[in-house]
Structure formats: C-alpha cells, structure tokens
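Need tokens for this chain, all 264 residues.
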Amino acid sequence: MVKIGVQQPPAVLKPEKEKEKAAGGDGAGGAVLLPPGAEEPAPAVQGRRTSLSGVCYLTMGLLVLLLGLVFASMYVYRYFFITQLPRESVFHCGVLYEDSLYSPFKGQLELHEDVKIYIEENYEQINVPVPQFGGSDPADIIHDFQRGLTAYHDITLDKCYVIELNTTIVMPPRNLWELLVNVKKGTYLPQTYIIQEEMIATEHVSDMEQLGSFIYRLCSGKETYRLKRRNARRRISRRETGNCHRIRHFENTFVVETVICKKS
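Here are the structure tokens for all 264 residues:
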C-alpha cells in the first residue's frame, strides 16, 4: 500500500511564523500604533494641575507674607511707639487768647495748665493752677472717654461736678496728644479765642463707684453733684453770675470757660 502525504506549501506556514514573531517577542515588532484621535491627554491635564498648584502656593505665600507684615507692624507700634508715649504724655502748656468781654483792654491773656494723657486707658487729666488774671478757679479735670463722663474738681470750693463728656469740645486722647506734640515742636499754634459753656448743679451723687475708677479717685470724699448743660445764646456777664464759679481750660485749639452755677 502506498501512503500519500499532503505537505502544506511554505507560503502558508510563513505567515503563521511571522504572526507568532509579531505577537511573541520582538520589541519593535510588538508596538501597537494608535490613531491620532485615540491618544491619552494625561500630560496636558498634569500640566494644568501643576500650574494651578503653583498659583495656589504663590497665593498662600503672599498671604503669609502679608500677615507677617501686619503682625510686625503691630509689634513695632506697640513696643516701640506706644512705650515712648508716657515720656511725652505729660505736658506743661500755656496758651495766649483774647477775651473781648471781660478783658477788652488787656489784650491777650495767658492760660497755663498741666495735661496728662493716658492713651491706652483712654482718659485725660488736666490741672489748672490759680490763674494770673483772676476770675477763674483752679481745678482738676478728668475726661473719661470710656465712661463718657467729665468731672470738674473745683479746688476753691473743694467740690466735684460730673457731666456727660462733650466730644465736640474735648479732643480724644490720641488727637490731643498729637496736637500738643505739634505745639511743642512749634509746627502748630492753637487759635486764640474763648468759648463758654454754662452748667447748672442738680442732684447730689451718693454712689461714687458708678462714675468709674478715674473719677472716683478724683472725687472720693468730696461733695459731688451732677451737672446739666444749659444752652446760652450769649456769654454771661459777671453781674449775672453771682452764684456761679468759672473754670477756664483748654483741650482743643481754643480755650473753654466752664461756668458752674447753683440751681436757683
């Protein structure tokens, strides 16, 4: 018997071997090429994230720098500027002014006072000595901006009078300090006129602690009365003030004459 074998032609086997080589192992032949539209956009997204992160870090750095500058400024202001204020917060002041009603022929009058300014405590203490021209009482005055009160201690009568703080006449401690520093340097001179405010003593004050610690220290042990401000259209002459006492002082660019009268 004769066996007949059928042998595949080499042309058929060769493509199969080439397929095996393409799928098997050659690195260059195993690369898969993708169409242009199918490429992954990972590098572009990663670049955007990197730029956004850089902007965020830069913003945070600027904020930290800004906060550092703010705290540094506060430190310098508190420990270098404020600490120097007590050295110059006590002023011995003198001001020239004209009084056309009481002294029309004397020309300018001079008023002296000692001013202590407490910026952190937010109050002012003024001592008015016995005036040279007469007609005004020496006094100790406290303007308490925390309580919103003013206290006058008439040294001649040894009595205290308390009234609401008039912020249109009395400068706050910071502003008054700057004014007096400029006057001391000679860069600013106050105006030379006088205004008048009239007060009437009303009820007696028995509870001194309600007035605050600053006024309490000034008026403790003294007769203390509440004052009521009375609006006057004109200045009061001496003949009209038989039961009144005057205190001249200044906490602004002008002199103030406070007239305290007994209740009729």
